[in-house]
Amino acid sequence: MYGLASPAKHGVLRSQGVLPVDYHAEDYARVVRTAEPGGVDYVFNGMGEEYFAPAVALLRRGGILVHYGGPQSFWAFLVLIARLGWYNLLPNGKKIVGYGTHTVDLDLLKEDWAVLFKLLEGGQINPLIAATLPIVQAAEAYQLLESGETVGNLVLIGSESLQRR
User: Fold this and answer.
1) What does each C-alpha distance from 10 to 20, 54, 145, 147, 154 come to in angstroms?
2) Domain with CATH 3.40.50.720 in the chain
3) What is the assigned CATH class of domain 38-126?
4) Which end of the chain is less congested by CB atoms within 10 angstroms, N or C?
């Protein structure tokens, strides 16, 4: 597994069994293509539309690109929909799946959440938590995420959870 990250985060990636690639200083597509000349099975892209075409190029025949996150504008959304349609029509054996949690009926996710919470409870997954903050510090949490220095997830705790502590 390969992960794009700045050098300060490479140690964390290695500790999780991921081979880090510095996407600021290296041509990440060339690095991965050199290591995997036949292509990769999956690419998960949550970094932005500019990574879409290189991600598709890294896939082997039968590979899948999971593109997640919301476009920044309605126009960008339309462009993304057109790209998804176009790439999926190409006879290259590659599939692109768009996923945005803001457009999904939450009832569709309940089964997945139940599985994830069971894995978490059983210790089969161990998410990396950078910090746990009260919901009233959501703006500070956002600033931490935007800084690019956060390694792991930020968890916001609602006021009712804080009262139970």
Assistant:
1) 6, 21, 17, 17, 19
2) 38-126
3) alpha beta
4) C
